[in-house]
Design a protein that fits this description.
Keywords: Cytoplasm, Disulfide bond, Electron transport, Redox-active center, Transport. The chain has 108 residues and is α+β, with helices and mostly antiparallel strands. It contains five helices and four strands, in the order H-E-H-E-H-E-E-H-H. It has a four-stranded mixed sheet with strand order 2-1-3-4, with helices on both faces.
Amino acid sequence: MSLAKAKEIVSGNPVAVFSKTYCPFCVSVKDLLSKLGATFKAVELDSEKDGSEIQAALAEWTGQRTVPNVFIGRKHIGGCDATTALHREGKLLPLLTEAGAIAKTSTA
């Protein structure tokens, strides 16, 4: 059930961040996405009644037990380090745009 819920969240949003409210790495990722103007769904696992089950299901699905657990365009990206590395490499913005999390701007 929890895995199905996680997959539904991932498939229903251009960007999904499984997070915990007290996690500084989660805050960093959400701040970065916000600064880039990305639309994302944050699921605060410590506020969800089935949060620990969702986290366990995510670990089984992705092999990652920690938060944040970031998905862009239905693809597992990883955590804070992976997300910020993509940004440093100039690859995050194109991924977000391709996923539909950032509106494409017209140059006309």
